[in-house]
Amino acid sequence: MKIVVRTVCFHFLCILIFAVVYLRLKDNFMNKGKTDNREELGLIDYILLSTTIQAGVGISDIYPISFYGKITMVIQQLIMICTHVFTIYIFNV
Questions:
Q1: Is the distance from CB of 19 to CB of 47 less than 8 angstroms?
Q2: pLDDT tens per residue, the chain (93 residues)?
Q3: Which domains can be identified in the chain, with CATH numbers?
Q4: For residue 19, which of 3, 27, 47, 91 is within the disulfide window of CB 3.0 to 4.6 Å?
């Protein structure tokens, strides 16, 4: 049971950390349908982006427009995949 709680806490922590990273890199992201709205995007928008990536859905109104935005999203996706593979391995042992 402890491993489940740790895994859930780890995912929540990743969501919050990456949301803050995305907020700091907000010039590297764009909102669909609008040309210049970087100032309108707030922390909640980046929490939504981070949650969809962490959940494996990957669908959001915000998308990366530069190398740094793309590589940050790839890093979060790799962390998510590695965590899921590790968790599945632990539960099947």
A1: yes
A2: 777 788 888 889 999 999 999 999 988 988 876 655 555 788 999 999 999 998 888 788 888 999 999 999 999 999 888 887 777 776 666
A3: 2-92 (1.10.287)
A4: 47
